[in-house]
Design goal:
It is built from 11 helices and 8 strands. It has about 270 residues and is an alpha/beta fold. The chain has an 8-stranded mixed sheet, with helices on both faces. Strand 7, helix 9 and strand 8 form a beta-alpha-beta unit. The longest helix is centred in the C-terminal third of the chain and has 17 residues. The radius of gyration is 17 Å and the shape is globular.
Length: about 270
């Protein structure tokens, strides 16, 4: 798919946004990426969608979206994203969020539920109320160096992501090469946006059909976190993927096929 992007300005902030796939598609999938990850890193995943329009974006301070002058919260981002969709003349969306982007996806689904058709969460948690992963891995993740220094990413990637990445360094190399990291302040702002945040107490209000995908060997977000979220949501189910944290990259085609089937399945069932 063509990843040509455009700049959309909302609430005084420039957003780098890419719209991909068929313009006449019945469903539009809003992609919320992981921390520090730019639009370009979605390429191995989005190319496998066949009948879905996709919208990807750089969070302020990442890739082509300039760093704002002050920190923000996830609720600030959801309000801006809602206006981005307005400017794109997009109505309802299916929402997909991976890792840090899973928190943003949950917040968007909560704040603008009437605009959402479904929610897919991958390798993520309810935020502050979660079962943490490997402490040594989490410590190494707390720095933007893995995004700003491809060689550093190659050194630590197998350990922090686990699964298929550990056995296919070429995948990790391609991921690192696709990164267009922002500055350190932008990364810190993303970290701060999630400090103290949790969806645990309001997940029951999200009544959207929800698919939660978790990596069986994820050293960052253990599977139990997906089960915790699903237990709080009235219309959610959990499925596991035989991989680590980066299964959206290592098993891009099968995960894309699963997500696409999920967002279309109610039509097939005549719902």
């Amino acid at each position: 798919m063509d990843l040509n992007s455009q700049t959309i300005t909302v609430m005084g902030q420039d957003w780098n946004v890419a719209v991909m796939g068929p313009a006449d598609a019945d469903h539009t999938l809003l992609l919320c990426n992981g921390i520090g990850a730019s639009i370009e890193t979605t390429a191995p995943f989005v190319k496998h969608f066949k009948r879905t329009r996709l919208i990807a974006f750089d969070v302020p301070g990442v890739g082509g979206s300039p760093t704002p002058w002050s920190p923000y919260r996830l609720t600030n981002l959801t309000r801006m994203l809602n206006r981005v969709l307005d400017q794109l003349c997009v109505g309802k969306v299916d929402v997909f969020g991976v890792s840090w982007g899973g928190a943003l996806a949950q917040q968007f689904a909560h704040d603008f539920q009437s605009r959402c058709t479904s929610l897919t969460l991958a390798a993520t948690s309810a935020g502050m109320i979660m079962v943490p992963g490997n402490i040594n891995v989490l410590r190494k993740m707390a720095t933007p160096k893995r995004y700003q220094d491809p060689e550093h990413m190659m050194k630590i990637g197998a350990e922090i992501y686990g699964g298929g990445v550990a056995f296919d360094p070429e995948l990790l190399k391609g991921h690192a090469a696709a990164m267009k990291a922002g500055d350190k302040k932008g990364y810190v702002y993303q970290m701060l946006a999630g400090v103290g945040w949790t969806s645990f107490f309001w997940l029951s209000q999200i009544r959207l059909p929800t698919l939660i995908l978790m990596g069986e060997r994820d050293p960052i977000v253990p599977v139990v976190n997906g089960k915790i979220m699903a237990s709080r949501m009235p219309n959610a189910r959990v499925e596991t993927v035989a991989c680590g944290h980066m299964f959206v990259l290592t098993q891009a085609e099968s995960v894309a096929d699963r997500v696409e089937a999920f967002i279309h399945e109610r039509e097939l069932a005549g719902a």
